[in-house]
Amino acid sequence: MSRDARWKALLELLVERGRLDVEEAAAELRVSAATIRRDFDRLAEQQMLVRTRGGAVVHGVSYELPLRYKTARHASEKQRIAKAVADLVAPGEAVGLTGGTTTTEVARALAVRSDLASGSPALTVVTNALNIANELAVRPQFKIVLTGGVARPQSYELIGPLADGVLSQITLDVAVLGVVALDVTHGAAAHDEAEAAVNRLLCERAERVVVAADSSKLGRRAFARICPTGSLDTLVTDTAAGQETVRGFEEAGVRVITV
Asked: Which of 88, 129, 215, 252 is 20 to 30 Å from 103 by CA-CA measure?
């Protein structure tokens, strides 16, 4: 296992459990305790965790794993969701994409659609996510509009009033929203209030809003609300979503597609 893969695995375990002992981590990853100690020390230097006697704990009370360290958690679900979301987009439309692992998969699904292989443009994509813009910029048939703003390292998203300035001057056919939490009562939410504010504006500029979220995000709450459930048109999630949860969104007027 490479160092990068090992670090990703360690951070995933840490987020799930809150605390890791050296011996426990070494057994999980099948490497030596000395290797884990070095890994913990390097990650502590990057402020990705807090070193403790014999192990490590998450950095801070509310912990968000940066996008670059996220492994393919729920990868197959996200890919199925992404294809279903991409199928909701018509050629020639203007599409807004927020940042996140699932919306990144949506961008990739759009990029390989045969009916979007040509056009003037085949699709207009507006995003505040640097990684999504980077992936799609090589598609000459796509018009890529990147908002201004200050880069947020955890999600590669541009935030702040510069992003607001661009988004206030455009209209979109559809906004595809990635979330960390989605609850019928409390709506869609993110960890960071500045990120939520940009995502909210992206949704407000769209004729319809589609949430791409695997079932682990449903029924959860997070610090910063993006928008209420009533602002959502469609939720695309995986088949592990509970029937009661799905029914709750449908009764709130949201079309739910499970894949």
From this structure: 252
Nearest 5°: CA angle at 142, between 140 and 148? 110
Section 188-196 average pLDDT: 93
d(CA 74, CA 198): 26
What band does 67 get if pLDDT is binned at 50, 70 and 90? low
Higher pLDDT, 62 or 91: 91
Question: Cα 201 to chain center, whole Å?
Answer: 17
One-letter amino acid for residue 214 of the chain: D
SS3 for 43? helix
Q: Residue 152 is encoded by which pair of tokens?
A: 């947020």
> Tokens standing for 60?
């801070």
DSSP character for 54? T
Is the Cβ–Cβ distance between 112 and 248 less than 8 Å? Answer: no
Mean pLDDT of 127-149: 95
The amino acid occupying position 12 is E
- In contact, 62 and 191? CB cutoff 8 Å: yes
pLDDT exceeds cutoff 50 at 61: no
**pLDDT, averaged across the chain:** 91
> pLDDT at residue 58 above 90?
no
Contact 69, 8 (CB under 8 A): yes
The whole-angstrom separation of Cα 24 and Cα 207 is 50
Token pair, residue 156, equals 């590669």
Phi, psi of 120 (to 5 degrees): -130, 70
